[in-house]
């Protein structure tokens, strides 16, 4: 299986700065708009990283003090700056930043994993270079999870005996470069009494696939993030479909983006299904469908 020849996908990043001036980035597909910082209403007993609530076209918008949320110094003028309004993982929020720099276009292969030693406390999922300047890609899922962790409902009681048996027979690999998102999926599976393999990159996932090939633990269902450094979920899926050994593996692309927006590209890449993060019951339903497809394909 070719590890390095996957076609790269185009990616647009919005660059912004905090007080330190270092460049950070967020996938432009996660951004709905950029606005000057409006007047905020502070809510009692709110999380200390939530600056307050703004009203945007008649709807409330929680505003996150991004500097505090990722352990940086607060902005010199707490009332200046602007808001990056994001829509990810079924939620909408404003990120208060110092300034927005510009939009740059690159390839998914241009995004490299965080430097060794960045640690679990890091709020970045990758790094790249723009005009020879290091740019850190924000792990927005981790920021939001630290403020309002997504509830992970236990769906086990609703599973039929047949569905539970199907899931137990599947060998599942979860691939995600965000540790928060990875653990959410793993927790859902463990609530179902199912253990799975995990990987933090497509490269690591390919290694696991090759290692288990031909064994009783051979992977037949993959749950993969789309936005990953070096090789994204689309390229990873295409590489599987181009390999005779892995072209029949069931692939569920699990994304923090609106899945309707990404569904065409997912289909073109060869994915079996796509799902927006994060709903434990919906992930369970998708995994049951995947396990059923795998069982029928093996008969």
From TrEMBL:
This is Chemotaxis protein CheW. The keyword Phosphoprotein applies. Pfam families: CheW, Response_reg. GO terms for biological process: chemotaxis; phosphorelay signal transduction system. It comes from Pseudomonas parafulva. Residues 171-292 form the Response regulatory domain. PANTHER family: CHEMOTAXIS PROTEIN CHEV, CHEMOTAXIS SIGNAL TRANSDUCTION SYSTEM RESPONSE REGULATOR CHEV. InterPro entries: Chemotax_regulator_CheV (IPR024181), CheW-like_dom_sf (IPR036061), CheW-lke_dom (IPR002545), CheY-like_superfamily (IPR011006), Sig_transdc_resp-reg_receiver (IPR001789). The modification 4-aspartylphosphate is found at residue 225. Keywords: Phosphoprotein. The lineage of its organism: Bacteria, Pseudomonadati, Pseudomonadota, Gammaproteobacteria, Pseudomonadales. Residues 10-149 form the CheW-like domain.
